[in-house]
Structures are given as structure tokens and as C-alpha cells.
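Session log. Operator J.P. requested a structure for one protein chain; no other inputs attached. Running the standard single-chain path with C-alpha cell output.
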Amino acid sequence: MLAGDVAVVCNGQYVGKRGTIEWITPDGRIAVYWDDSVGTDTGHGVVMVDLCDLRVKPAPHMLSLSKDKGYNVAVGDIVEVARGKWHRCQGVVNTVDFTKALIEMVCSADGKWVSYSFPFLILIHLLA
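Structure written below.
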């Protein structure tokens, strides 16, 4: 379980709600941002939930590798960082290094140049 994964509440006062894991506290409580799990805000903000009350699934739309097509990302695609230091940072892919499984992008929020590994990225929009 990591920040960016999808959490669905199975027990307690928030039963049926779903959202994105923002962070995990040392005592095992989970901060969940209520959304539709693809980034759309539902207006409920961040709520602390016990781990035992959640079912956790990997983040949706993660970049993936197929044997015949390779990774499903190209220069110009819009991606979002799903996990780690730059969590929720979005940007346009500037370079793709398939040998190292890295992309480089400029974060749209602050203009910083970010280099990130494919497994930690969510594909937001394909270049048309």
C-alpha cells in the first residue's frame, strides 16, 4: 500500500466512500482524499481512516508494459506522479528513456524539471 493507491471504506462511518491515499501515519491510520479515484474532487477533503476499515487497490491507469507494444507512453502525453516525493504532480512528457524506464517532464504546478520511473506514473491523457 502506497500513497496514490485507491481506498474503499468497508466499515465505519464512511462505508462505501472511495478515494486516494494521501499518506500513512506511523500508527497505521490512513489519510484518504475523497474523490472518484481518478482525480475528481467530490468536496469531502482528507479524512483519517483506520487501515482495518479499508480495502486498498493499486492506483488506476498506471503506465504498463506489453510484450508487443512496449510501454504505453510517448512524448506529449500528460502524466501524473502516483507515488513518492512528487505525488500528484502533473506534466507533459518531454523525454522517454525506455532502457531505464524513465520519463522527464516539467511539473505544471511549479515548473520544476522532474525525472520519474514508469511504475510510479499514471497516464492522464494520450497525445492525440
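Operator note: The radius of gyration is 16 Å.
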